Amino acid sequence: MKNIYVARISDADKLAGRYSSKTGHLACWSLESKGVSWSSYLFIPDLSATDIICFDVLFEEDFRKENDVNKGDRFKMSSPEGVADVEIIDIKQGEPINNLENRVPWGKRSPYLKGE
């Protein structure tokens, strides 16, 4: 089990057009914290319908040693399409999102797609 961060993403409506063809695809975005960039995995939701994303952090043990993450904390996440601000609204325990960690075959639909 791993921490799954549920976050509200700013400007989801602006990102929706850029990501409409990538809905449902696994993506790696960089979570910026204390001058360090952490690889974060998420399935791109339909950003025209929701502003909620769920992500996990690769090397989470190291990330948690450096960061005390709580509800309400804000971070910047960068992707190939730009930078977004995210606010943590919940932290859950769940299976890793990255298919290399959870051994789920590529293409299997994720429960994290809709922020569940």
Q: Radius of gyration from the CA trace?
A: 13 Å
**Which residue ranges are poorly predicted, with pLDDT under 50 across at least 5 consecutive positions?**
none
What's the number of extended β-strand segments?
Answer: 6
Structure classification: alpha+beta
Q: Helix and strand string, N-terminal first? A: EHEEEHEEH
Mean pLDDT over the residues: 83
Strand order of the largest sheet: 1-4-3-2-5-6
How many helices? The count is 3
Largest sheet: 6 strands, antiparallel, barrel
Distance between the termini: 16 Å
Percent of residues in beta strands? 35-45%
Sum up the overall morphology in one term. Answer: globular
Molecular structure report:
The protein is an alpha+beta fold and 116 residues long. 16% of the residues lie in helices and 42% in strands. It has three helices and six strands. It has a six-stranded antiparallel beta barrel with strand order 1-4-3-2-5-6. Strand 5 and strand 6 form a beta hairpin. The radius of gyration is 13 Å and the shape is globular.
Question: What is the fold's blueprint, element by element?
Answer:
Elements (H helix, E strand, L loop, with lengths): L1 E8 L2 H8 L6 E8 L2 E8 L8 E6 L2 H7 L7 E6 L2 E13 L4 H4 L14
Antiparallel strand pairs: 1-4, 1-6, 2-3, 2-5, 3-4, 5-6
